[in-house]
Design goal:
The complex is a heterodimer. By secondary structure, chain A is an alpha+beta fold. Chain A has 23 helices and 13 strands. Classes of the chains: A alpha+beta, B alpha/beta.
Chain lengths: 826, 250
Amino acid sequence: MSAATAIERDASRSGMNGSGTVGLGLRLAVNGGREAVTRLVILVVAVGLGVGLLLTAVAATNAVTSWNNRHAWFWTGTQWAAPGPATGVAPLWWHPTSDIYDGQTISRFDVAATGASSPVPPGLSHDPAPGTYYASPALAALLRSVPADQLADRYPGHLAGIIGDAALPSPNSLVIVVGRTPAQLATAVGSVKVTAVATTVPGNLGGSVTISPARKGHRPQFAPNFNPNGLKYMPADTGAPASGTDLILSVVALAILLPVLIFIGTATRLSAARREERFAAMRLIGATRTQVSALAAVESTAAALLGVAAGFAIFFGLRIPVAGIPFVGQPFFSGQLTLSLFDVIVVAVGVPVAAAVAARLALRRVNISPLGVTRRVTPKPPGAWRVVPVLLGLAELGFWEAHGHPASIQGQIQAFVTSFALIIIGLFIAGPWLTMAAARLMARWTSRPGTLIAARRIGDDPRAAFRSVSGLVVALLVTTVATIAITTQDAKDPTRFGNIAESHVLTAQISASNAIARNSGPGVRSGTANPGPAAPVAPLAAQLSAVPGVQGVLVVRAVPGLTIPGRFENLGVNAFGVVAVGSVTPIPAGVVSCAQLATVPALGRCPAGAATAEFPADGFNGPLGFNPNVDTYTWPAANVSVAGLDALGVDGINVATNGAPATVERARTLLKASVYPTVSPPSTYADIAAQDDSQNSGYQQLANVVILVSLAIAGCTLAAGIAAGLAERKRPFSLLRLTGARLSTLRGVVALEGAVPLLTVAVVAIGTGFGAAAMYATEAQNRPMVAPGLAYYLLTVGGIIVSLAIIAATFPILTRITGPEVARND
Amino acid sequence: MTPDHDAAGHSAANLSVTGHGHGASGKFIKAVDLSLSFGSTPALRGASLGVAKGEIVAVMGPSGSGKSTLLHCLAGILVPSSGEVHFNGMRLDRLSDDKRSALRRDRFGFVFQSGQLVPELTAEENVALPLLLSGMRRGPAMAAARTWFPTLELDGLESRRSGELSGGQAQRVALARGLVAEPEVLFADEPTGALDSMSGELVMNLLVSAVREQGTTVVLVTHDARVAAYADREVVVRDGTVGTLTGAKP
């Protein structure tokens, strides 16, 4: 051979290794007939779906961060916000409070500028003048639509403008900034001067700061003070702990993405046998293993690139509907669902690279020699040891149920997270063995040929059979546990925090004793608070009594130093303010009129013949909080005359209502517009339940989305797996049909191969979810599990039916590929 | 009915295949003037063939001549666009698809060149499959299947999968499957096409021995003269018609 020929030969070889390989790979992908094009389309759709969901999950995480960050300015003036510059800026008087309307939280900020350089809250062009206020769009709409005596009368002045979206966490946020004079705020309890508006959300607050029922003996804790001169006040709307929300979103993303990834993997198996035979033919004529591997990678990468483009399109299409899902209790602005440049690059580059790597790895499992493709005949069966992890997880959960969970929050998180992680991972590990065991049982006992073939196929490669449906494990287990936990938590029952009558008592708590000085919570001003003035309460009580639907008014009058023995109804045992568990503390008390108490029977009764009675001064903020037995108590008679009450200050005002929203809001408006500042917003138990429910309903919607999407994708995965399996067995199935086997028998094989793994996994995952949720309910939620409602069953059963229908959609393939033309020898 | 006429009374002289001698006395299965096209490509053009009960007939011809198509028409797999197919006095071409399928399931057996074994099943399960498909219970079906293993020199291979068998072994398993239900007619399409000559010879010896014992009629498609030599009679299909008869004996 001449040197020129050798060079030419080498040059053509190197051409095949570069652009030639890419060109050939693309031609094979597109020109390989209908089968190849179908495969390409399915791959593009699968990758597009996966990329779209991945981008949506990443954007949702970014949205949560943005949503949280927009709460930053709510912390202005509190102990957790850094103080502003000491000089050079005219201070702004800042008075944060919270309010409630129809169970929704309103964040209120009364401000008074002391100079032109006073800081301005975000979303406003200037500080509101006295007699004016700025409201968020949602609150402005409410102010226009609701009668003034139910809402607008709470705010002095008139609406001067709308707060810009950039300052609001959510389109539904209810926020108001009220203009005051410096003199008004200087004398108001809970006011502070600030020289800067907070721009960062405080970090971990280190303790329970929720409004859910706190357990006896469990004290909320504050993090170390950041600004000792700031207010001991936590905004009503604090956002959500980023770590917790990110964890939930990560689990949701995994629950949806895992089925999609498995779908992609299964779709790549479509016509794999024919591709591999093609590659064997190429090896025969001199292609190297590397070239064949590269060709496979080109095809997968091409599909992945197209899929990435489709994925971005899906993401932009999903943005608006996803933004509307209130999975943090509120919807997002669609503009909050953003992707950073880093996110885009990682996905746009990472997915095609991953596809190329996966294609190369897949080819390593088969030996493509010039004489054909050889495969392992029967993989090694999975061992019984695989069920150990899931049993360990269930056993750990059972252990905590039997012995009680750790006292600290951190310990509880570790206990429950490890239990659930073991259960989820354990199901993944046990799945192939469970599948194989079920298949072997079927094969042993059946006489039906279709069942025999299906059972053998599943039993031969249980890993592959389980892999098709393994994504369902996470989805069904997590959503079952989440749905039951949510249902147990709220059960749509406003009386879960107290009896019915208590639920409709509107309480305005004015004073706070030393005993509960360290109470914290959204909208709660912690620290001691003095009683309110004596005189204005009588006309206020009269106004309240005149509101249609108000059944009674009970004013708790302040008597400094008065206490009720701690053994009274054991209210002082392990109550708030107790230093050590098991000790008994006297309850700070005020005095009530028995005539008034009789109009609010939910709060107990007087002894016979008494005119006044002692009553806990801290009201529902104290030992009466979440106590369902208050209506049965007979309070001790007080040593104060009825006439003497008028001169005493006011600890609290309780209004018994009929629960009608208009009644509650009118009474609340009167209380908010009064001279009495409260340590927390005037509220009923029904308000607390509604706020709890709004968060939970968001999670429930998320769970519903996960169930539907993952079941549908599992069905697609199964269908793709079945189609791939049919292609591999085209000839024997065709010849079986030709020799007289009924088409229904072959359809039975197809149906069983799809349905058996799907239903087995669904039953096991749902059953395990129920078991885990039941133990979690009794242990962490302190109540028996409440079964989920009809919606859960409809969604789950509906999703399974959709999956089975998708499997049935492969029947026409069976009919088509088993036609008589297949009997002709190749 | 005379030896020269079938159950319908057709004269043997009207057939283009004059299978006299061993096959002349009554046609158990026959094709009369079959025509069939695949799209615009004619596969059969007036093909006729008669096979007597218990006869082994080899259908030969070059690739693409239509011999497999003729076999498929005789087996009821394909319906000709014109002509008649008779089986034991029955008009096969007029039966519904379900009835033809039932016929193939209950009264015919098949052996193809390759790829007919279900890969998930063991050898004995593959052999038992026709019995299971016809509704027999698993125990008796497996017992019946096992009796074929010594007959076809497959001892010890009962639990093997198709991927674990050699080509010759797999083809013998396929043969056992074709015969386990004691069919009246066995259709074999290139049964040794994928085998070497020694394996092919073994398969054919066993096939002939088994069918003789059962009295099964055999229609055997092959392009291999050595395989055709096992037949009682050979016919040639050329360009969609059944042509010259040879009187070759196995």
